[in-house]
User: Which sequence fits this backbone?
């Protein structure tokens, strides 16, 4: 089962949050200070949500960061899964349970969709199992630097 962490609990888990987010979001070293500063501000001000799955022995198994986004044109809300990091491999049934919990949160917040971005093929497979459909593909061309 997934639990939502209160903004007041973020400082206690900040090291684990930093580790999981930097790994999952593949943050460049030079971008880390501004990335982490924005993330911490968003979590402490409840503009982002932190979710955990704990083991029976209270060990951290999964960390997820979500944000509620509002489309500037339509005004519709969507739940964006920014970060998904698992310390332990689990079966599709556990992922389904976690997804159902987050889906209910999205409905409660009157979101019309849930979305995420990932370069991880395992996450793509999991998304299809959970009923997600590919929405678009994104391409980059570096012009030097980063």
Assistant:
């Amino acid at each position: 089962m997934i639990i939502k962490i209160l903004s007041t609990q973020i400082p206690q888990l900040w090291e684990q949050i930093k580790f999981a987010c930097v790994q999952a979001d593949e943050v460049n070293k030079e971008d880390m200070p501004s990335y982490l500063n924005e993330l911490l501000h968003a979590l402490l001000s409840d503009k982002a949500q932190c979710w955990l799955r704990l083991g029976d022995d209270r060990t951290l198994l999964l960390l997820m960061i979500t944000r509620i986004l509002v489309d500037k044109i339509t005004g519709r809300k969507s739940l964006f899964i920014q970060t998904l990091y698992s310390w332990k491999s689990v079966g599709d049934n556990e992922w389904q349970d976690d997804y159902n919990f987050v889906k209910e949160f999205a409905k409660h917040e009157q979101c019309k969709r849930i979305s995420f971005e990932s370069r991880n093929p395992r996450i793509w497979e999991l998304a299809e199992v959970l009923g997600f459909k590919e929405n678009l593909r994104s391409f980059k061309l570096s012009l030097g630097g980063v």
Remarks:
- The longest helix spans residues 92-108.
- The first strand starts at residue 2 and ends at 5.
- The two ends are 38 Å apart (CA to CA).
